[in-house]
Amino acid sequence: MLGGMQDWPLRIMRILDHAAREHGTRELVSLYADGTVTRTDWAGIQRDSRKLAAALERLGVRPGDRVATLAMNHSRHVVAWYGTIGMGGIIHTINPRLFDDQLAYIANHAEDRILFYDRAFAPLVERLKPRWTTIEKFICFDPAPGEPGFENLIDEEAGDYQWREGDEREPAMLCYTSGTTGDPKGVLYEHRSTVLQAMTLTSGDLFELTARAVVLPVVPMFHAAAWGLPFATAIAGGKMVFSADYNPSVMCDLMRAEKVSHTAGVPTVWLALIAHVEATDGDLASLRVVHIGGAAAPRSMIEWFRDRGIRVGHAWGMTEMSPLGTCGAPLGNWDELDDGAQLDYLCRQGRVPFGVELRTVDDAGAVLPRDGKASGRLQARGPWVLRQYFQDERGPVIDAEGWFDTGDVAILHADGVMQITDRSKDVIKSGGEWISSIELENAAVGCPGVAEAAAVAVAHPKWDERPLLLVVRKPGAQIGAEEILAHLADHVAKWWLPDEIVFVDSLPHTATGKLLKTALREQYRDYRLRTAA
User: Fold this and answer.
1) Distance, CA of 395 to CA of 388 (rounded, Å)
2) CATH of domain 357-423
3) How does pLDDT run across 123-143, given as a tens digit for each residue?
4) Which residue is catalytic, options 134, 151, 210, 434?
């Protein structure tokens, strides 16, 4: 049949070319750990990325080779992404918050050849150099005055490099899971999967990214590609603001100075920011859209932002999903819902965008109905969902129909909204029924005087398991167990109430800010409840 459309492979560098051509003067502002501020724009990012691509080839990097970064959020890090991808390499973002053994394993498993790093991580780099067996060259993004580094490397190039073309299914980025159990596992993102998700993120129902947006990704660039924001914002032509300092005071000042309108991060970041704003009687100026992911957001947190006219998008995803899976975009009948119903909806993890399919199954593998009641193992499939882990000889981790088991337990509602009830390994099974540790924790955080809470299962001779609630008080708070139980009684079923509440000074977290339940389960494995006596 005569006719047809052009073959235009979905390659990541087309994103940067578009941003430079159509939105070239839109700024990228970076605040470094030492207080230095740099400014560039999308045209500058394209120019420097071409220089870096040429420099990498001069250093002997070949298509398919892995180039690692150990860095916070800043424009040079963005250049490292696009420059590496542009010459056919694979950019590998390493999480500096991991343990030394994990850091050594990740870089060696990836067979990284080059490492770009922030000066703040120089002691870590020096400590691990003897253990990194494949890295040939170490280049500092922000060296001390007078020392060579990233800028010297790219300044030697003309900036006329032509991007390497290829198949849209070629790999482009490598991200490792945080590895709370066993060795971290690598997830290899492709050009096509990355472009498709980035295009989806710009939609109004998701991140509301436009050329007018001023985006500050609080989620680190080493965590699941900063949720795709450096790619999606380039498509939209928005301004980007980066900070290597997550101090709430610094963040608030930066938001006000740069008129940040959009941001995204994990709940622990927002807890600190909220506490700072309340303590200083401050405000968040131009901020109008906040996306919260990485862990379930407490209802009280969502209310806090909404009371200030800020839209909250409660998102869910995982490294294996590039990472977006769902987002709390308003429903079609949003204006007909009262405030309580809207909040109920926002506390769930949201709707599925085009490009993702979800279902829940029971322990026998039977598909469960979307009735808002049946809770089961959450499975996903789609063009940006993992098929097989990097260099894993065990083969695909999907079933014959393409479904990937996320490890989460969830409910799907009739309107398509997904609600995470727990991680499969964190759910508390009491008397044959499930208790959601997430709902218990979020209800507890809504109690005045509670800064953070974690619910873990403890053995019980009659009920098999019962919940133990670990609570961190807010500074100066004198709240007791009876007050917390009274608060919880208004928010959860009576039989969900924890058998005991233990007050602790702090709770452990993973490298990405989630509660480290594995450590808590191990710590309280032999804890004997008074009700078990």
Assistant:
1) 6
2) 2.30.38.10
3) 999 999 999 999 999 999 999
4) 434
